[in-house]
Amino acid sequence: MIYPIISYSLVFILVGGVQAALPAYSGRTIFFSVTVPERFRETADARSILRGFRRLILLWTIAAEALALATIYTGVPWFLLAAILVVGAGTVGAYARARKQTRQFSVAPSAERTASLAAQSDGLPGSYLILAAAAAPFIAAALFTGSRWDQISDRVALSTAFGVSGSVDVVLLLLALAILHGSRRGSPMRSVNLTVLVAFMLVNSVAPATFIALQWMKPSEQFWGQAFSFGELLFLAGMIVWGLRKGSQLRHSRDTTPDECWKLGQFYYNPQDPALLVEHRIGLGYSPNFARPLSWIAITALFLLPVLAIVCLVIANM
């Protein structure tokens, strides 16, 4: 029981901590996706807005932790889905509130970006080979499991682990391809985002392999398998910190996406912009350009994959 409790706690603490830290990792003239004077974040108003945002993040993180623990004690997977939704909706609401408070201090909106979408080499060297290597542990674990399927006692749990991990891997792979082909070239943050994404994909691929290893370990040896899982979480945390610090060093130029095109501060809608994805104004990652119909199709598909995995988990435990 203690292992899943610690695992869920670490995951949601990591997510909440990253969200609370993100506003500090943006360009000097960007605060909660609003273009502000260069020294605005040093003012008392900025500090007050940031404190309010972090208090809300803490509140929603605690709520998500409670729902995740309810999943463990009751065995009802819907609580885990509710925890994920609470974190997502709570973060969006907290960010929108902080953005609204910041708007009164905004300066003239900037001009639209003009960087080319034409193919260039700024990304990861050997991108496709690296993506394949990140997925290799999952494929190897699946082949190994298939060859010893009759020896597995808890097939439902193992099938669930593979289903969830596989769907997440597909989501991350599609996102990587979208970044490679649908985002602007020329930004130093592009390779940073791709590196962190590959790290997430690699850890997610290793997760079912670790789960399988635990099935064949003696009870006295399982501590090391569980410790390896915690090591994976620490590795992810380290990669996120590296990406955020690297991003703060590279974001010297002024973000030139129009302020008014950032809805709630996090969702980009610009019919005049040909890009499918644009870099987030803070932290890491990309926002789809919701003015592009292809973005809606992709988002729907990406959302349905993890939901389908959770539905399969519920059906398997009925």
Which helices and strands appear, and what pairs or packs with what?
Elements: H1 2-21, E1 30-31, E2 34-35, H2 44-74, H3 78-102, H4 127-147, H5 155-182, H6 189-216, H7 222-250, E3 262-263, E4 267-268, E5 277-279, E6 286-288, H8 293-316
Helix pairs in contact: 1-2, 1-7, 2-3, 4-5, 4-6, 5-6, 5-8, 6-7
Describe it for me?
The protein has 318 residues and is mostly helical. The chain folds into 2 domains: 1-108, no CATH class; 117-318. The chain is 65% helix and 4% strand. The protein has helices at 2-21, 44-74, 78-102, 127-147, 155-182, 189-216, 222-250, 293-316; strands spanning 30-31, 34-35, 262-263, 267-268, 277-279, 286-288. Strands 1-2 form a two-stranded antiparallel ribbon. Residues 110-121 have low confidence and may be disordered.
Summarize the structure.
The protein has 318 residues and is mostly helical. Helices cover 65% and strands 4% of the residues. The strands form 3 sheets. Strands 1-2 form a two-stranded antiparallel sheet.
What distinguishing features does this structure have?
318 residues; mainly alpha; 2 domains; two-stranded antiparallel ribbon; globular
